[in-house]
Design goal:
The chain is of the alpha+beta class. It has a single domain, classed as 2-Layer Sandwich (Alpha-Beta Plaits), CATH 3.30.70.100. Helices cover about 35% and strands about 30% of the residues. It has 3 helices and 4 strands. It has a 4-stranded antiparallel β-sheet.
């Protein structure tokens, strides 16, 4: 499993438009092969700053999504009307849960 953080800074006044489009994109993402889950987070110190945290089965599944025409259409719209700066995407790596080994303090 791969976790991806996508950081966006929205032009003040366009936050509700960004959130509305995100909701539509999330519906599409839910149908994509390799997508696990995605959440949108808003910075409490800066209401125009967002992070989309997304889990994918593989890096290739995420890369396929960002290479898709749908993603390009949304990013073109965002660049021209919504975003204050270039978005930053960070792949955090494998988030496969560790193999259970029991508690080191209270072994079973």
């Amino acid at each position: 499993m791969v976790t991806v953080g996508m950081n966006y800074h929205v032009i003040k006044g366009n936050e509700s438009d960004f959130e509305s489009v995100f909701t539509k994109v999330l519906q599409i993402m839910g149908q994509l092969d390799g997508h696990v889950k995605t959440n949108l987070y808003r910075d409490v110190a800066d209401s125009s700053s967002y992070m989309i945290l997304s889990e994918w089965k593989t890096t290739e599944a995420f890369e396929s999504f960002i290479a898709s025409p749908q993603f390009k259409n949304v990013t073109d719209w965002g660049k021209s009307k919504i975003l204050a700066s270039q978005p930053k995407h960070q792949i955090y790596g494998d988030s496969t849960p560790p193999t259970p080994r029991g508690c080191p303090v209270h072994p079973s």
